[in-house]
Amino acid sequence: MGIRFDGTNVKNGSRVVANMKRSDELREGSSSGGKALGNIKRNNEIREGSSSGGKALCNIKDGKNIRLGSSSGGRTQIKLSDAAKSIGTSAQGPSTAMVWWFFAR
């Protein structure tokens, strides 16, 4: 079946493996109290954990590509549109990049 993201829940088949009940944090499981995997704090950067001081994993500053780290010159990992297709969503924002980073990379 593969990973699917409906805008709130990340599912592997019928099982919820993560959620985005808050629009800026990805958490394990179906509960809003699950461990924070990553967050979106500023400038469309995906950061580790729930803190704005977490390590910058990737970014979509140009709006088209998922790039390594916090720099707009970071190495391109994948086009945002291709990442959206791989996780079964039509959304093309930072939440799509975060779900792709943690579950489809």
Task: Spell out the key features of this protein.
105 residues; alpha+beta; 9-stranded antiparallel β-sheet; 2 helices; 9 strands; 16% helix; globular
Q: Care to describe what's here?
A:
This protein is α+β, with helices and mostly antiparallel strands and 105 residues long. The protein has one domain. The chain has two helices and nine strands, in the order βββββββββαα. It has helices at residues 80-86, 94-103, and strands at residues 3-5, 9-12, 15-19, 25-28, 36-40, 45-48, 56-59, 65-68, 76-79. The chain has a nine-stranded antiparallel sheet. It is globular and about 35 Å long.
> End-to-end distance, in Å?
16 Å
What value does the Rg take, in angstroms?
A: 13 Å
| Strand elements, count | 9
Strand content: 35-45%
- Given helix and strand content, the structural type is alpha+beta
Order of helices and strands: EEEEEEEEEHH
Q: What about the largest sheet?
A: 9 strands, antiparallel
User: How large is the count of helical segments?
Assistant: 2
Silhouette? globular
Q: Name the helicity range.
A: 10-25%
Strand order of the largest sheet: 1-2-3-4-5-6-7-8-9
Number of domains: 1
Instruction: Provide the residue-averaged pLDDT.
Output: 94
Short overview:
The protein has 105 residues and is of the alpha+beta class. It has one domain. Helix content is 16%, strand content 35%.
